[in-house]
């Protein structure tokens, strides 16, 4: 997001009870356009991904973002560079844990 939305990302982070930092990066595209800095919330912790991020978006994204999310869950299981402990996220997805768990569905 644009850096002007940093406060919004902080509010989202706090609402989700995440401890992650909201980073502010310079835009590195060198195509002659003047772009502002980017604000980014990066979530990498296993527990946050398993219990907050995946349930939040699972089955709720439509269009291309939904496809990207599904592809990401599939790639976790296939990518050799993903730590073995994170492969559990893929297995939970495949066995229907997120789909069938009423705590994760509205």
Shape: globular
Q: Can you list the strand order of the major beta sheet?
A: 1-2
Low-confidence stretches: none
Number of helices: 5
How many domains, as an integer? 2
* Derived structural class: mainly alpha
Description of the molecule:
The protein has 106 residues and is mainly alpha-helical. It folds into 2 domains: 39 residues, no CATH class; 59 residues, no CATH class. 47% of the residues lie in helices and 8% in strands. The protein has 5 helices and 2 strands. Strands 1-2 form a two-stranded antiparallel ribbon. Helix 3 packs across helix 4. The longest helix has 16 residues. The radius of gyration is 16 Å and the shape is globular.
Write the layout of secondary structure elements.
Blueprint (H helix, E strand, L loop, with lengths): L5 H10 L6 E4 L12 E4 L4 H12 L5 H16 L8 H8 L2 H4 L6
Antiparallel strand pairs: 1-2
Summarize the structure.
By secondary structure, the protein is mainly alpha-helical. It is 47% helix and 8% strand.
């Amino acid at each position: 997001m644009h850096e002007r939305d940093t406060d919004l990302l902080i509010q989202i982070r706090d609402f989700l009870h995440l401890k992650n930092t909201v980073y502010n990066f310079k835009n590195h595209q060198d195509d002659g356009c003047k772009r502002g800095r980017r604000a980014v919330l990066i979530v990498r912790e296993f527990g946050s991904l398993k219990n907050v991020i995946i349930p939040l978006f699972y089955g709720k994204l439509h269009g291309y973002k939904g496809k990207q999310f599904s592809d990401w869950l599939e790639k976790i299981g296939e990518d050799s560079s993903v730590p073995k402990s994170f492969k559990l996220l893929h297995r939970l997805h495949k066995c229907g844990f997120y789909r069938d768990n009423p705590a994760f569905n509205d």
